[in-house]
């Protein structure tokens, strides 16, 4: 059959669109490359708006892939829960500076539906002490469109990058940074910047927050809660932990609607600071903000506590843990919910019920009611906690993993979003 006689040429757009919309994901991706007319059905031209609406209706039922890694050969590889296997989905070789993907995955990144956002390149001066300026990229992994976002008011390297769909074919990017300007170096102040990019306006807005008594706040993680439009940044409060001998944190909440921020002190009395060598993370699960604490294997490597001189907030702590035997002891994961009204932490679960060998959890994501605890280490199982069923389980590991972020990929969440 010649290309002129293919389905896209013989049938009206509405009929061709209806046929293609019935093709399940990820087989839909293979259908795109059958011929040029087939591929043109996926373009964003007004002629194909009917097709896009039909695809969106069908793809809203597509299963979510979670967790999703970026592999060494630049593929997005996710777990297919329907077929119980790891699935290679999208290759990022089309992306600008694809050769820098290994660097990209070491920087903060996030995913919302088909939109992947992160730091790809960085323009660093060789002069010691000069700031490192970074650019933010957004790409639609289904349509393979990408763009570099306009320069931000503050081009410092981000500590957190969050993207979320904010409407029909629109998105918002939030960037958290901790610059250290000269005027603050001699003072007991901490400067935190929130920068928000709205795709509809194509502009950045900047909010600076100067914090007193925050020199010993160590940044841990950040998430954006879509249900209440708030950005949450978690810090380990080293000074208060030393004073109170318990695991102390501080949560900075930025309201994207009002533009106001709030500082909230948190404590985990069940964990003494002197024993608190743990990895922390934030996830948004069923609309709730969840704090995950995973006791580092150094505590239980041989059943005894580590008798070393390196404190858990020292950067070398993570380096040492990386060379420890990968093993997730029973009851070493504590899951807590942040109460929006009382601003306290509510314990939800302590697990897993038994030791998981070859597992080391330092990456966190969620989908619906499930929290996924994964690792950047090769051949590490993924531990899952289902908040609704209150059950623990584990996924088989994948060997094709790069050190970096993990995501939850929802192919049906506005797959044609324009970047």
Class computed from helices, strands and strand pairing:
mainly beta
Please, what is the oligomeric state?
single chain
Q: Roughly how much helix do the residues carry, as a percent range?
A: 10-25%
Largest sheet composition: 4 strands, antiparallel
Overall pLDDT score: 78
Our Rg estimate from Cα atoms comes to 23 Å
Overall shape: it is globular
The tally of strands reads 26
Domain F-box: 10-40
Organism: Marchantia polymorpha (Common liverwort)
Pfam family, one: F-box
Protein name: F-box domain-containing protein
Give a written overview of the molecule.
This protein is mainly beta and 419 residues long. The chain has three domains: 1-62, no CATH class; 64-215 and 402-419, no CATH class; 227-388, no CATH class. It is 15% helix and 42% strand. It contains ten helices and 26 strands. A hairpin with a 2-residue loop joins strand 4 (109-112) and strand 5. The model is unreliable at 1-8, 125-130 and 299-318 (pLDDT under 50).
């Amino acid at each position: 059959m010649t290309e002129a006689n293919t389905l896209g040429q013989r049938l009206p757009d509405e009929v061709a669109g209806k046929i293609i919309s019935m093709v399940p994901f990820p087989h839909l991706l293979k259908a795109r490359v059958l011929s040029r007319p087939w591929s043109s059905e996926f373009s964003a031209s007004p002629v194909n708006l009917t097709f896009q609406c039909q695809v969106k209706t069908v793809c809203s039922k597509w299963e979510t892939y979670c967790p999703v890694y970026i592999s060494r050969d630049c593929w997005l590889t996710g777990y297919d829960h329907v077929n119980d296997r790891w699935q290679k989905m999208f290759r990022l070789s089309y992306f600008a500076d694809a050769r820098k993907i290994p660097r990209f995955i070491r920087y903060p990144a996030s995913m919302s539906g088909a939109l992947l956002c992160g730091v790809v390149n960085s323009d660093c001066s060789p002069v010691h002490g000069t700031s490192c300026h970074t650019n933010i990229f957004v790409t639609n992994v289904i349509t393979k469109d990408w763009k570099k976002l306009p320069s931000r008011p503050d081009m410092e390297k981000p500590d957190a990058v969050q993207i979320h769909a904010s409407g029909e074919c629109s998105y918002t990017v939030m960037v958290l940074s901790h610059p250290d300007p000269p005027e603050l170096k001699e003072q007991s102040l901490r400067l935190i910047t929130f920068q928000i990019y709205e795709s509809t306006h194509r502009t950045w807005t900047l909010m600076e927050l100067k914090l007193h008594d925050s020199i010993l706040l160590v940044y841990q993680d950040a998430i954006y809660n879509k249900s209440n439009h708030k950005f949450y940044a978690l810090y380990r409060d080293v000074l208060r932990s030393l004073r109170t001998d318990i695991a102390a944190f501080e949560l900075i909440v930025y309201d994207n609607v009002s533009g106001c921020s709030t500082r909230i002190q948190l404590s985990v009395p069940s964990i003494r600071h002197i024993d608190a060598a743990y990895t922390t993370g934030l996830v948004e699960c069923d609309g709730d903000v969840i704090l995950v604490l995973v006791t580092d294997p150094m505590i239980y490597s041989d059943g005894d506590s580590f008798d070393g001189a390196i404190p858990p907030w020292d950067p070398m702590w993570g380096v040492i843990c990386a060379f420890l035997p990968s093993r997730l002891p029973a009851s070493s994961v504590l899951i807590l919910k942040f109460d929006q009204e009382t601003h306290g932490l509510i314990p939800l679960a302590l697990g897993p019920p038994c030791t998981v060998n070859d597992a080391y959890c330092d990456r966190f994501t969620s989908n619906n009611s499930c929290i996924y605890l994964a690792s950047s280490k090769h051949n590490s199982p993924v531990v899952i906690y289902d908040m609704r069923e209150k059950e623990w389980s584990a996924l088989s590991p994948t060997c094709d993993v790069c050190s970096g972020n993990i995501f939850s990929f929802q192919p049906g969440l506005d797959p044609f979003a324009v970047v």
